[in-house]
Amino acid sequence: MSTIFSKIVSGEANADIVYQDELVTAFRDISARAPTHILIVPNKAIPTVDDLTEDDEQVAGRMFLVASQLAREEGIAEDGYRLIVNCREHGGQEVYHLHMHLIGGRPLGPMLAR
Ligand code: AMP
Questions:
Q1: What secondary structure does DSSP assign to 32-90, as a single string?
Q2: What's the gap in Å between 31 CA and the centre of ligand 1?
Q3: pTM
Q4: Nearest CA to ligand 1 atom 15
Q5: Is 37 annotated as catalytic?
Q6: What single DSSP character describes residue 4?
Q7: pLDDT tens for each residue of 81-102
């Protein structure tokens, strides 16, 4: 099933794209929770992290490498940042196209509310 993120990858929908290559696309979250809030998504529509297969090893690795590269470019690497991948209902996933949140630019507090 196609989501808004597939449309952003293909250029059909607008987004503030900060990086794109043959495997992944990164764009600013429309509802940023911190000074830097970027989503890194596979160009291929993989619904959740649970749907990754061995064939996706390269794209999964690329998501991490692009996240760290963008963190350096955003100037947040030295202070640190958080990468989040939500999976399905209990993970709070809203868009069923795998994505990694790159969040930083301020202290982010505890990892989870108790
Ligand atoms: P998640 O809860 O992990 O599925 O996160 C989905 C994220 O996508 C949320 O932080 C939304 O603000 C963000 N989002 C939804 N639609 C768009 C869009 N059109 N452009 C950029 N970010 C979006």
A1: -SSSEEEEEEESS---SGGG--GGGHHHHHHHHHHHHHHHHHHT-TTT-EEEE---HHH
A2: 7
A3: 0.98
A4: 30
A5: no
A6: H
A7: 999 999 999 999 999 999 999 9
The domain locations on the chain are: 4-104
Look at domain 4-104 and name its CATH class. Answer: alpha beta
The residue nearest atom 5 of ligand 1, judged by CA position, is 94
For residue 95, report the distance from its CA to the centre of ligand 1, in Å.
7
Question: Residue 43 Cα, ligand 1 centroid: separation in angstroms?
Answer: 15
Element (H, E) at 27: strand 24-28
Instruction: Summarize pLDDT for 55-77 with one digit per residue, the tens.
Output: 999 999 999 999 999 999 999 99
H or E element in which residue 103 lies: strand 100-104
Residue 64 and residue 48: Cα distance in Å, rounded? 16
Note the residue count of the chain.
114
34 lines ligand 1 (CB under 6 A): no
